[in-house]
Amino acid sequence: MNAQALESDRPAKVAASEPDQGPFDAWLPATAPNAEPAWLALARAAATERVHSQGAPTGKSEGWRYTGLRALLEQGFTPVDAQPAALLPEDVDHLLVPGLDSHRIVIVNGRFAPQLSSLAGLPKGLRIGSLRIALAEDPDALTDDLTRVAGDGAHVLAASNTAGMDDGMVLLAAPGALVEKPVELLHISVGMDEPRVAQPRHLVKLGDGAQVTLIERWASLGDALYCNNAVLEIGLGRDAVLAHRRVQLESPSAFHISGVYLGQGAGSRYNGINIGLGGRWSRTDLVMRFAGEHAECDLGGLYLAGDGQLVDYHLDVRHGLPHCTSRESFKGIIHGRGKAVFDGLVYVAKDAQQTDAAMSNRNLLLSQSAEVDTKPQLEIYADDVKCSHGTTVGQIEPEMLFYLRSRGIREGLARRMLCLGFAGEIIDALGNDALAAHVTEVVGARLEAAPL
Fold first, then answer.
1. Which residues, in sequence order, are bridge partners of residue 234?
2. Which of 341, 298, 269, 305 lies closest to 446, judged by CA?
3. Where in the sequence is the domain holding 100, given as residue range(s)?
């Protein structure tokens, strides 16, 4: 691991602000929505107060020790105030995954784009639509769901999302619904005249026994500077099953913040694969809670970071009940002067007997200037458990590279082959041939061209 301090690691210096204001006040809308249910107005007001009163986290904050906010704060982001000119399907065809057949909902700069979405013919028991429209049509329908799983959120940026959320996706699966075709949530960002932040809010709720595959993708038109600050709340009923695939491939100038908050009912199963490839600065928080016994949570991830990139994954998996299982397996490939952070916590409460948990983080550094800060943690208060954690940081074996070069394979291609071998376990776990082929091609091209 490279302990070299980077500029982004230093505590952010924020210009003096108005009394009772915080550094993220500029991210909030100037006016509250004209009409919204009282319960949502209260949640928004509490979140707004938190944004006002909290300063930017610094290196002294445990969760931000390795992830500086200087670069994020210096951009001067303000909320998206208008949609770009209406996009046509042919404008975004190149962003689609070849061969991926899905029910598709498209969010452009944080807002639902019906002309780009493909929601006709949804199977019985599945409802997908815009959060803004859902709240307008039936203001109290989401009272027991929206903001309930995430609560206050993991940090002040989650509070900013609650205070400033404007639109997003609502996915509701009725008890027993079996959705064969995957649902694709495609975020598209388009550059605007000024640095803008979009704060989409998504809600996924699966009734008892429902089964859904959700593919969440982040893409952009061009290399514009922008920020996405998103929150996704997931509630799984008894014996529900959700396969969740997340692929983040945004503009090299983009800033990306995501919070995934999961609440699992008894016997439910969640399988999440996270692929982090794009953006200049990205932070993803995966916060998991068990609300019933015999639930299973399986998290996997692959991240790449090259010159000028910071990628950060924070995991918070809490076992508060007995007989639950969790698995966390993340791999990173860092090249050039890229930097990666992995901070994972598995917490086992006193009453969570017969917990089965394992966390692993493996990293491959392709240059002397690459840096990774990895901290898998176990905090255990029960005595009848099976828990483990581990981390490795290594480099490509010179002998393996020499072997391939000696057989006429050029260095870039040889490096691609070895790195894809390292990453293959995570890519294969995507479980969708079209999506796996897409990720393999993007990762391979990046690695083959990566300067060392």
1. 204, 262
2. 305
3. 7-396
Question: What distance in Å separates the CA atoms of residue 67 and residue 159, rounded to the nearest whole number?
Answer: 19
DSSP class of residue 42 equals: H
Residue 411 within a domain: no
The neighbour count for residue 96, using CB atoms within 10 Å, is 17
Q: Is 234 helix (H, G, I), strand (E, B) or coil?
A: strand
**Cα(170)–Cα(119) distance, integer angstroms:** 13
88 within domain boundaries = yes
On whether residue 115 sits in a domain, the answer given is: yes
CA angle 325, 62, 8 (to 5 degrees): 115
Would 101 be classed as within a structural domain? yes
Cα dihedral 284→63→155→213 (10° resolution): 30
**What is the C-alpha to C-alpha distance for residues 430 and 437, in angstroms, rounded to an integer?**
10
Among the residue ranges 115-119, 265-269, 331-335, 366-370, the one predicted with the least confidence is 366-370
- Number of domains forming the structure of the chain: 1
Per-residue pLDDT at 21: 65
Give me the percent of the chain exceeding a pLDDT of 90: 76
Distance between CA 231 and CA 153 in Å, rounded?
9
CA dist., res. 4 & res. 1, Å (int): 9
> What pTM was computed for the model?
0.92
Q: DSSP letters of 336-348?
A: TT-EEEEEEEEEE
Most confident by average pLDDT, 394-398, 429-433, 444-448: 429-433
Q: How many CB atoms lie within 10 A of CB 137?
A: 10
In angstroms, the CA 204 to CA 368 distance is: 42
Beta bridge partners of 79: 197
Question: Does residue 34 surpass a pLDDT of 70?
Answer: no
Report the relative pairing of strands 126-130 and 196-198 from DSSP bridges: unpaired
Instruction: For the chain, give the percent of residues with pLDDT over 70.
Output: 94
How far, CA to CA in Å, does 399 sit from each of 261, 336, 359, 418? Answer: 43, 21, 29, 12
